Each structure stands twice: as structure tokens, then as C-alpha cells.
TrEMBL record:
Its cofactor is NAD(+). Coiled coil: none annotated. This is dTDP-glucose 4,6-dehydratase. It catalyses: dTDP-alpha-D-glucose = dTDP-4-dehydro-6-deoxy-alpha-D-glucose + H2O. Residues 4-295 form the NAD(P)-binding domain.
Length: 332
């Protein structure tokens, strides 16, 4: 197949592109605006006969129409995705996550192109720390930030286009990703790169907030499975049973980098900080037969730390600007 991957120069998208080209015979066209979160270097070394990068905006209807019409399937990763940034300036999240998704599904409807929409578990809101339940495909949406509300809106657009117009689409909602090529503004790579630079990590509040972590390679394999075997109109939750509280994540990073586990500072918690996310991926595993490769979070984290230690030329150009932006916004 010829796949159009939106946001393929970003973190999760670039991991997917590498995974596709490494494990299948598919060819890939990436459409990416190359905002601060997109990085050409994340796509270095890919085979020129099977890969092309198109720099452009998913809200550009004319460009999207041409690219979607020439693809066998669209995998839609492109999104504004940083919660802190959405609290500071929500508008880009509306433009990309709502208008961009609308533009893509209209083109996919016109051309009859298979469409897979990548979303997040944050659309479900959060769970209490002592709640034994996890999110399922039937969990009602309850987003709590401009980011998660625009992702919820984009999910609902896709669902409506399936029902109203016969869009050949599936949706996946994934738990928090970690792994190679993740921008240093994000929680895990920010802590890793801070420690590598001799800077003490900072932890929001008491660090009790729980996230359900999954390695980006496992997310990629799940999406390929859904693209191949998924039932049109269905939603699949992707998770690897990786629940960890933020305090444990920071302490494990410090330990794996040879530092004392308590060598970090607490800072004021973020506004509206969700307590806990937890994914039940039973449907994906039982109906489509998917299994994660990284079932041990510590092993996956060790692999990720090694990547950042070995690829400093990739992340150092973005590090200083990121920390300066955090300081300007008065964030930890």
C-alpha cells in the first residue's frame, strides 16, 4: 500500500514511519507542517524509493485533496498535543485538531480512501487514583483541557463521517507514549535530558498522577494491526499495562542514570492536572490478536534512555529553546 501519514515528522508519527518501512513493503508519504514539534532529522536515512516528505498544512484543502487521492490509506497522527501549551494558547489546537481533521476526512470521503485516526486516552478525562476501573471503548468522553477537548472533537467528527457519509475509518485511542524521537518538552525526555545535562528534574505536585505508558514501537505495531484487520467504524484502545505514577518515573530515570532516586524538586501542580489514565486494551488483543513487545516499563525506559544518550545531536538543538519557552511561560 501507499500510506499518507500526517504528522510523520513528529514523535509518534516518525516512529510509525520507521516501523512501516522496516517491517512491511508499503511506501510512505509524510505530510507535516514542520512546526517546532516536527523534525526532519527524525526521518533521516529512510529509503528514497519508498519514502517522501511533503511540507504542508493539513488545513490546506487543495494539497490534502491531491495527497489523499493518491494514497491507499491515510494514518492521521498530526496534532497539537502539549497540554501546557493548550492552556497557554488554545487556538492552534482548534485549527489543527478540529479543522485539520475535518479537511482530511472530507478528502478521504471524496476519494473513498481508507482512514485511520490516531487519538488519545485523555479524551476520557481521568480516573481516581484508587479506582480499579480502566478506560474502555464504552467510556464516556470527559476531556479536561483545550488539548483533550479538541482531540475528543476530532474523534466525534470521524465517527459522524462514518455514520453519515460512509467514511472507511477506524479510530484508536492510545495511552501515553515514550521512546525515540520524542520532543524534549515532554515529560520523560525532558527529565532524561535534564539529568544528562546535570539539571535536577522538576515534578508537578506530589507526583502521584498516574499515566499508562506504552513504547512508541508498540503503538506503531498496534496501528498497523488495526489498519490491516480493524473493522470499519470501530474504535480500539491501545495500551501495554504500563501504569506508573510520575514520581516513580522520575525516580527510575534518576536510578538508571546513576543518580540518587530523590535528586529532584517538587513544583506547583499544573492547572486541571488529570489524576490517572489507564487503558483496557482487551478488545484489540482478543479481536485482532495484538500484543506489545515492551511489556516491562523499566526495560522500555532503559531502551529510551540509551537512545537519548546516543542521539544528543538530535535533541540538543531543541533543548535550549524549549527550556527558555518554559521559563517565559512561568512553567516548571
Amino acid at each position: 500500500m501507499k500510506l499518507l501519514v500526517t504528522g510523520g515528522a513528529g514523535f509518534i508519527g516518525s516512529n510509525f514511519v520507521h516501523h512501516v518501512l522496516d517491517t512491511t513493503d508499503h511506501s510512505v508519504v509524510v505530510l507535516d507542517k514542520l512546526t517546532y514539534a516536527g523534525n526532519r532529522a527524525s526521518l533521516d536515512g529512510l529509503p528514497a524509493d519508498r519514502f517522501e516528505l511533503v511540507v504542508g498544512d493539513i488545513t490546506d484543502a487543495a494539497l490534502v485533496d491531491v495527497l489523499v487521492g493518491d494514497a491507499d490509506a491515510v494514518v492521521h497522527y498530526a496534532a497539537e498535543s502539549h497540554n501546557d501549551n493548550s492552556l497557554h494558547d488554545p487556538r492552534p489546537f482548534l485549527d489543527t485538531n478540529i479543522i485539520g481533521t475535518y479537511t482530511l476526512i472530507e478528502a478521504a470521503r471524496k476519494h473513498g480512501t481508507r482512514f485511520h485516526h490516531i487519538s488519545t486516552d485523555e479524551v476520557y478525562g481521568d480516573l481516581e487514583l484508587d479506582d480499579p476501573n480502566r478506560f474502555t471503548e464504552q467510556t464516556p468522553y470527559n476531556p479536561s483541557s483545550p488539548y483533550s477537548s479538541t482531540k475528543a472533537g476530532s474523534d466525534l467528527l470521524v465517527r459522524a463521517w462514518v455514520r453519515s457519509f460512509g467514511l472507511q475509518a477506524t479510530i484508536s485511542n492510545c495511552s501515553n507514549n515514550y521512546g525515540p524521537y520524542q520532543h524534549v518538552e515532554k515529560f520523560i525526555p525532558r527529565q532524561i535530558t535534564n539529568v544528562l545535562d546535570g539539571v535536577r528534574p522538576k515534578l508537578y505536585g506530589a507526583g502521584q498522577n498516574v499515566r499508562d505508558w506504552i513504547h512508541a514501537n508498540d503503538h506503531s505495531s498496534a496501528v498497523l494491526t488495526i489498519l490491516d484487520k480493524g473493522v470499519i467504524g470501530e474504535t480500539y484502545l491501545i495500551g501495554a499495562d504500563g501504569e506508573q505514577d510520575n514520581k516513580t518515573v522520575v525516580e527510575t530515570i534518576l536510578e538508571l542514570l546513576g543518580q540518587p532516586r530523590d535528586a529532584y524538586d517538587h513544583v506547583t501542580d499544573r492547572a486541571g492536572h488529570d489524576l490517572r489514565y489507564a487503558i483496557d486494551s482487551t478488545k484489540l488483543r482478543t479481536e485482532l490478536g495484538w500484543r506489545p513487545a515492551f511489556q516491562d516499563f523499566r526495560a522500555g525506559l532503559e531502551d529510551t534512555i540509551a537512545w537519548y544518550r546516543d542521539h544528543q545531536a538530535w535533541w540538543r538543538p531543541q533543548k535550549a529553546a524549549t527550556e527558555a519557552r518554559y521559563q517565559e511561560q512561568g512553567q516548571a
